[in-house]
């Protein structure tokens, strides 16, 4: 059994993730569900470790054995790139590998609304793409980065952990730095970034106070900054950023955020009705003077209402995004209902408010 064969089979099946689990055959996530990669036997502890170590450099092995955790990435020519997390659990060494397409998708392939595509044309500010793990945040950002790369004669700098999509410099100079390989930390890279003449900065993950502060500072000083957070919707994203700071700084951060934030895209992936993969439902917040005032005044709970009434600015609440996908026949109503914020609102938007009578002729 060789890892390349496992990954090739999984990728050709359409898997998004591959799991090497001791005591089970290689497993994969297919259309949101975990299932076996066909054609492989159960893994022993020794076999699992051998397969995983076959893709690690000597220094990566040493780092893993010291920390018992490792994030990295690797590529198989002609197949795909993979983001890898190696871990130790009670039976031994295991790994999870996320499939990263070798081709950066277009806005049409991702069904990106025009309001999201326009973020690539902004001269400055902060744009956040949020959602749970595995919701396609990196893919959405990669699409926007490539749009900028094709149109702008400037400098794009990414700081990632690890590098996922890879780019070739087109009109822009494109530089990618990987935490642990090309820089010691997000914070170190972002501090240096402001001296590297960037126009656009991508922060792979805004994890802590210092990283968030540096991203806001970068946006304040005239750069276009993109970042990700693991939050469920736009208002909670704003609260998360503010709550990271100590109480005596929160009023100042509200003012800064009200000035620099340009938009928030919160997305989830929903299984397609035809079984052919998953489709993204996206809640979109666009910064307007009204939203800016709500952030400044600490009234983030009222942003839901601003999104509901902000269609003319390109805003979309999650329930409407789910309803649109349902009406288009792309997702089943049952799947959408599981993810709706307000079931009655969703049913009305999707045209499901009137249930058919069981006694109807």
Topology of this structure?
Elements: H1 3-13, E1 17-20, E2 27-30, E3 33-36, H2 45-53, H3 58-67, E4 69-76, E5 80-89, E6 92-100, H4 107-110, H5 114-117, E7 125-130, H6 137-151, E8 155-160, E9 173-178, H7 186-193, E10 200-203, H8 209-220, E11 224-229, H9 234-244, H10 247-260, E12 261-271, E13 278-286, H11 289-296, H12 303-308, H13 318-327, H14 333-339, H15 343-349
What does the radius of gyration come to? Answer: 22 Å
The residue ranges in which pLDDT falls below 50 over 5 or more consecutive positions are: 357-361
Count of spatially separate domains: 2
Order of H and E elements: HEEEHHEEEHHEHEEHEHEHHEEHHHHH
Number of helices: 15
* Mean pLDDT over all positions: 93
**Strand order in space, largest sheet:** 9-8-10-11-7-12-13
Helix % is 25-40%
In CATH, the homologous superfamily of the largest domain goes by the name P-loop containing nucleotide triphosphate hydrolases
Give the percentage of residues in beta strands. 15-25%
Oligomer: single chain
Top CATH class of the largest domain: Alpha Beta
Q: Which structural class matches the secondary elements?
A: alpha/beta
Our measurement of the CA-to-CA distance between the termini, rounded to an integer number of angstroms, reads 60 Å
Tell how many strands the DSSP assignment holds.
13
């Amino acid at each position: 059994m060789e890892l390349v064969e496992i990954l090739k089979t999984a990728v050709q099946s359409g898997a998004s993730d591959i799991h090497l689990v001791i005591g089970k055959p290689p497993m994969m996530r297919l259309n949101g569900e975990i299932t076996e990669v066909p054609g492989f036997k159960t893994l022993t502890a020794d076999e699992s470790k051998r397969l995983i170590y076959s893709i690690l450099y000597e220094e990566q092995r040493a780092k893993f054995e010291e920390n018992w955790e490792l994030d990295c990435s690797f590529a198989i020519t002609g197949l795909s790139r993979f983001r890898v997390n190696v871990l130790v659990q009670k039976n031994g060494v295991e790994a999870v590998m996320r499939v990263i397409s070798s081709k950066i998708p277009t806005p049409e392939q991702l069904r990106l609304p025009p309001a999201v595509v326009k973020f690539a044309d902004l001269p400055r500010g902060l744009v956040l793409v949020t959602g749970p793990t595995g919701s396609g945040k990196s893919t959405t950002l990669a699409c926007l980065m490539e749009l900028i790369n094709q149109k702008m004669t400037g400098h794009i700098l990414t700081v990632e952990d690890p590098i996922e999509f890879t780019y070739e410099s087109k009109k822009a100079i494109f530089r990618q730095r990987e935490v642990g390989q090309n820089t010691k930390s997000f914070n170190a890279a972002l501090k240096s970034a402001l001296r590297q003449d960037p126009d656009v900065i991508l922060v792979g993950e805004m994890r802590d106070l210092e990283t968030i502060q540096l991203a806001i500072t970068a946006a304040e000083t005239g750069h276009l900054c993109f970042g990700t957070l693991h939050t469920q919707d736009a208002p909670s994203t704003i609260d998360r950023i503010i709550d990271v700071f100590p109480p005596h700084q929160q009023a100042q951060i509200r003012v800064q955020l009200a000035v620099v934030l340009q938009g928030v895209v919160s997305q989830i992936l929903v299984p397609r009705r035809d079984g052919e993969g998953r489709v993204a439902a996206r809640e979109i917040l666009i910064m307007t003077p009204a939203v800016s005032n709500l952030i400044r005044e600490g009234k983030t709970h009222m942003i839901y209402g601003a999104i509901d009434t902000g269609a003319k600015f390109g805003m979309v609440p999650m329930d409407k995004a789910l309803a649109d996908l349902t009406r288009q026949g792309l997702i089943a109503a049952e799947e959408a209902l599981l993810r709706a914020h307000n079931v009655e609102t969703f049913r009305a938007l999707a045209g499901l408010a009137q249930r058919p009578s069981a006694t109807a002729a």
